[in-house]
Amino acid sequence: MSTVHASTHPLVAHKLSRLRDKKTEPKKFRELVREIASLLAYEATADLLTVPRELETPLAKVVGAELKEKIGLVPVLRAGLGMVEGFWELMPGAEVWHIGLYRDEHTLRPVEYYNKLPLEPTVSVCIILDPMLATGGSATATAEVLKRWGVKKIKFVGLIGAPEGIKAMQTAHPDIDIYLAAIDDHLNERAYIVPGLGDAGDRQFGTG
């Protein structure tokens, strides 16, 4: 079974509290999403493989390290877009691939409407970015697409997860570790996370 990592970092907790506040305006909301994503990126990439690299400092020769694995960021449109910049600040060379999903309001199941992945994988590690792991439908569907693409190593990074979404993701993809800023209580009748922060996409882009 995959591991669920809920951050205990004080900075994450502080910024997440500001993010939850319904009085936080879209501009500040976007800044906080980017900042939290950057902090989670640090935690989610701790096990990336490196190879030795010889270099010379101003004083001596030394063997350093550089990333061995090529990273792909896969933000689930549209809410996941706000997390990309936070990861790019740490990994500016990461590729970004988009998969578009929307939730059918009647079935609550994800419907894929956009996918421009090339025929063969161009990265060895994919990180799915989606602020809310609610029902888990979008996350599991995105992971299925990436596995069909041929990616062997996948991680999920989100801001808030509900127990229902975490269970769905672990059941469908027990090989994918999950990184979150917090785990909340439950989903309501509209499949929103409680206490949550509302609709992450609407709050980022000033819609809804």
SSE layout:
Blueprint: E1 4-6, H1 10-20, H2 26-44, E2 50-56, E3 61-67, E4 71-77, H3 81-88, E5 95-96, E6 99-103, E7 110-115, E8 125-129, E9 132-133, H4 137-149, E10 153-157, E11 160-161, H5 163-172, E12 177-180, E13 182-183, E14 186-187, E15 193-194, H6 200-205
Word description of this protein:
With 208 residues, the protein is an alpha/beta fold. The protein has a single domain (4-205), classed as Rossmann fold. Helices cover 32% and strands 29% of the residues. It has helices at 10-20, 26-44, 81-88, 137-149, 163-172, 200-205; strands spanning 4-6, 50-56, 61-67, 71-77, 95-96, 99-103, 110-115, 125-129, 132-133, 153-157, 160-161, 177-180, 182-183, 186-187, 193-194. The longest helix has 19 residues, at 26-44. The radius of gyration is 17 Å and the shape is globular. 37% of the residues are buried.
Comma- or semicolon-separated keywords:
Rossmann fold; eight-stranded mixed β-sheet; alpha/beta; 6 helices; 208 residues; three-stranded parallel β-sheet; single chain
How many structurally independent domains?
A: 1
Compute the gyration radius: what is it?
Answer: 17 Å
User: Per DSSP, what share of the residues sits in E-state strands of 2 or more residues?
Assistant: 25-35%
Q: How many DSSP E strands? A: 15
CATH architecture: 3-Layer(aba) Sandwich
Q: How many separate helices?
A: 6
The biggest beta sheet reads: 8 strands, mixed
Overall spatial form: globular
Roughly how much helix do the residues carry, as a percent range? 25-40%
Order of helices and strands: EHHEEEHEEEEEHEEHEEEEH
Return the CATH class.
Alpha Beta
Which residues form runs of ≥5 with pLDDT under 50? none
* Average pLDDT metric: 92
Q: What class, by secondary structure content?
A: alpha/beta
- Distance between termini? 37 Å
Q: Write the CATH fold name.
A: Rossmann fold
